[in-house]
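Re: your question from the hallway

Yes, I did run it. Sequences:
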Amino acid sequence: MNLVNVNKVDGAVGLTMSRLEAWEKANGAAIFTEDMVLAGMLHGALALSKVAHARILGYEISAALALPGVKAVLTGDDFEPRYMGLVVKDETVLAKSKVRYIGEPVAAVAAVDAETARAAARLIEVIYEELPAVFTIEQAVAAHAPVLHEDFDSYFKIYDASTRRTPNELALSTLRRGDIVQGFAESDVILDQVYETSAQYHAYLEPAAALASVDGRGKVTVWSSTQSVFRTQANVHESLGIPMAKIRAVSPRVGGGFGGKSEAMVQPIAVALAMKTGRPVRIALSREEDMTAMRSRHPVRTRIRTGAKRDGTFVARAIETWFDGGAYADDTAAVMNFALFFGTGPYRFDHVDLVGHAVYTNKLRAGAFRGFGNPQVTFASECQIDDLAAELGIDPVDLRLKNLVHAGDRWIGGQVVATSGLEECIEKVATASRWRDRAAKPVEAPDGKRRGLGIALTAHISGFLSTSAIVRLAEDGSVSLNTGAVDLGQGSDTALAQMCAAGLGLTVDAVNVVAADTDASPYNSGTNASRVTYMVGRAIGQATDVVREKMFKLAADMLECNLADLELRPGGFIGVEGTDHSVSFAQIAAKSIWFADGGGPVIGTGSVMHNEPLDPKHTLLAGFLSFDNVGALTFGAQVVDVEIDETTGKVDVVEAWCAHDVGRAINPGAVEGQIQGGFVQGLGYALTEEMVWDGGRLTNPSFKHYKIPSSLDVPYAIHAMIVEVADPLHPFGAKGIGEPPLIGAAAAIPNAIAAAAGARVRKLPVTPERMLRALRFGADGVDV
Amino acid sequence: MSTDRTTLSFHVNGDPQAVAIPIHRTLLEVLRDELALTGAKKGCNTGTCGACNVLVDDVMIRSCLRLAVSVAECKVTTVEGLARNGMASAVQQAFLDAGAIQCGFCMTGMIVSASALLAQNPAPTRDEIRIAISGNLCRCSGYVKVVDAIELAASRFRQGNAAEAAAMEIRI
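Structure:
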């Protein structure tokens, strides 16, 4: 068989295209969950806990039920104790017998309109016996601290939590390699500092929403703003005990997720209300509710030590990091483990000792968020490397280049780095930013301002968890592509269509991208971990290979020639090499569907799980999740130019250069959009975004008081630079780009600030107050 | 909760409308819940994010902050009213061509803001564009391609390519 190398077909891969659904998003026709209305639909509203930690003694719901238009009220008493969660199953659909944070859903109402539902929710009284609460990591692990989860040992978990030392710790993990004591003994210079990061809110523009309906057979359909219809289905099943065969999860358009919509929240509540009332129920959270009750990025405190030789050779790296997980585990153990996995950054260290703790506190749960623990540790690591460069008198770029991990090296867990375009990324950003010229002759800042450049490197992965794809040939020679992957807006539907089209020599118009639907789609774990282009792309590659093989066999029959003489021709044809004989995909489809010797419909499937076991002989792991399926390592480099106002302490990012190795850009324009958008989300994380609690109460649950970057807060130019070093496992060599741009910004901006100010701020965000303190005192942050 | 109701008469995207509503309904609620015009989004409901932006008598406003009764007899244009006969407006087309749209939730409000800007100032600087959309929060794009899109729309509009201008007239 002579399959053409599809990389050489003038195909759909590598073309910048507008998103398939862009027009409906531009004209208002795109349907998001809150835009959906079903006949007889009720509106749901939640009553949220007003106390941080308490036993629930009872409920007073009669006033709510008496309100005209109210159709149902549910409390924790209405549910069996059933638990959901990805890595620890510790959450019930509504608080059951205890509340653990202010904002936790304690009761739910369904009523004829949203206004009535909200009014009824306000009338619900919960009788609490308040308990002492813990709001900080120190309080959580103190002797005799009040315990959040008395039943922790009985919860189902996917990792070994037996290493933990105190009742509010939910995980204690270690990664060790070499001999850390020897490593520091061999080092000429050792830096030892503490870096802290704050809770960041995802701030997807569409707040969480779900619409549930139950049909006459008792089957539930739930439409929701989710990153995974399959996780939604599993969460509803686990928390409500409904068999999965009776749950259908679907997603209309999703208005951003960034990790925050990976696991369920409103979906099981909407389902329970729909089952109770027998009518469709829609819940759409207000912005304040979403900020108070959904999830955040983990606040983290990291002590980091780096040892190096006088010539700049890195020798030893030790990290002890503490993750504040909030009241429920959600993805916490995995996030913390992932941070450890990137504890060395893209650098060679012979001696590594990485310890991570994760604890429960009486605050909003922290969970998955673009970068998944990596931004916190990369901030600490990249800042310390810059401080080390200053200490050694070596240029930060040179120090990094000297210690880089290269293709063929082994990562901290023992996995081999398959490819790396990191040096090219560094070269690109250093050249474009005139790094060396600026080092020799810094740009003059106006009076009252300080100006400086900073660099950071990123290492991340694209991969994780299992995925599948189905490609089916239709009568007209087009194909349907069904993957179960939800496009959150990042453009995966388009990229997947491009790959499917290119795999078969078709145009993108000839690919029907099927919406994710648990009733119809093959399994996809979710839109997380920069994984869709990479993992689903691999599944699509398998599926299109099968479709092609089946079509070639039919074409050989139809053209009465040898398989080896056939070639795929662009536009949906298979031809005989060196001749003008060919059959169209439509003719092949007709043969397969209507003729006795056609073999039946042409369908190809792909099924993928990355399998590359970590090596316990290379690295000692304890209390660690299975990371045997992390996927492909990805690398990037960013340089930013900042200006600091000495009077106000305000930091402006003047320009940014972001180079990322994406393996191969399937839709280059969309890759640029990911890089620019990710950078700006990281800019907010670095400079302004901080959820602030007063005790257990979130003080800034609004866009007025929690500042995400506006168009005036971003640099005029964010140069997105694409580096392409093909991944060997992906049919087109592509890797993911969702998360790395944010990770880089969270470290490059602080480094530019330190370069400009001559003073280090060791806590994110670098607010004007912290900046002014650092300018005054030479540094800002807690000491070791 | 007030139970007082009134009948609101106004024009939406060129059509006369009359809806019976409680007097405390916002324009956003009326557009979405009574008229099924869901292009304007409820991103914050406090006037901060701009996802609900619409035009009232050609002036851009936050529909979540505006009581519906205050637009009686006014001419309201929502994002659904920008295209004509299914043909994109110049601003919409530029947003498609520049690849500015990601999740899209903020984009309807963004496109309304951009349309209002270009109607008043067909040759905005990049700074003027950034200021004009500074009340529209976007979490996906980093605004770079959004500003590019608005510049593109402006340049096409100015070039006045006859066919293109006819096809892409900025409609407000």
